[in-house]
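B., you asked whether I could sanity-check this one before it goes into the benchmark set. Here's the sequence:
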Amino acid sequence: MTLRVLAYATVGLAPVEGYLTAVNAHLGKVAPALLIVVWLVVRLRERRLPRPTPLHAVLALLAMTVATTAAIHSPGEFTAEYTLRWLPFLIVTAVLADVASREAPIRGLLLAMATGATVAGLGALYSLIVDGEARASGPQADPNDLAYFLVAAIPLLPLAGKALYQRVIAAFGGAVLVAGAMATFSRGGALGLTAAVGWLASRRVLPWRALAVTASAVALLGLGAVHFAGPQIERAVQEKSFIAASNVDTRELRWQAAARMVTEQPVLGVGPGGFREAYAAESHNAEIDEQTPVAHNMYLEVAAELGLPGFALFAAVISIAGVASERTIRLVASSSPGRIEAVAIQASLLAVLVASTFLSEQYYLPLWSLAALAVAAEIRARREDRGEEWCGCVSCT
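And here's what the prediction gave me:
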């Protein structure tokens, strides 16, 4: 029970971590830290071993790669900080995959993610309408990062259930998430949302009626926002239009710099956080007012910092998640809840991957938690397909 609660807290509080850190700088790390510690204690006490999967092997190799390139680039200004960002995500992913395959139901974890994101969406609308921010940020400092959390959660709403009250809750959550994502004015988030909705529709998980109801709710929220905060929204649109061209130019500069880093140090990269440190020199001070930015492209940044072998392992995590979710769909019946869960994971992962083409989101939980849940869902589906009950003994691991 404790593991289940901590797993829910870990994925559910991730979207609102900014609110937690505003109270205490370390408060947002409490749930995942407790999850890891309690998981270790429980497994040692019960003498249970984690079920080995390809994901665990890849995570271990990726951790070794991060540690190796960090050791080589240890004098770097950001190396220690970013190494300490990488390693907890890898550990939490391994732990979540194990807990979700045994103690915590997949649907519950996905709905916890959606609930936390909905709260973040409400915070986004509050920051735009009440606080008068030009772009909604809510619990995240960067509106683009907030959009990433919101669009990743939208595909999870079909899991709410078929009862009338559950559909109403899902429609409300969808309206808040979509409106909140729109309020960030993030183009990457919009593309991720489009890809996710298209995937859900193509796999016949998102009914057109539900889509129409959610769109109507978003339209009502939009009309209300225009009525109560018309000047703020108009100002936000003007500011976003003004900086849009500049954003395109600066991202092109950063992508080019990251690509050069990959070609210059293809094996071990420039180290965790090395893109920020090396950007000014690599771009020949192309951005005078921004000397240590992120690449705004997850794939190029990972390749530049960890090298091509590290990027291959990172891509392997994503591939394993995609393959595992598709295998789950093939293992379960077409009407099974497990199929909806697997398709929701796929759509959410697709939103994450598309949005990350324009954002550096490897240091946020959705990507990692979705990979863990995809693998856990396949383990559960295979166990049910064989008619097995999990006993937790060593012979079952």
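One thing to flag: The two ends are 20 Å apart (CA to CA). Otherwise nothing jumped out at me.
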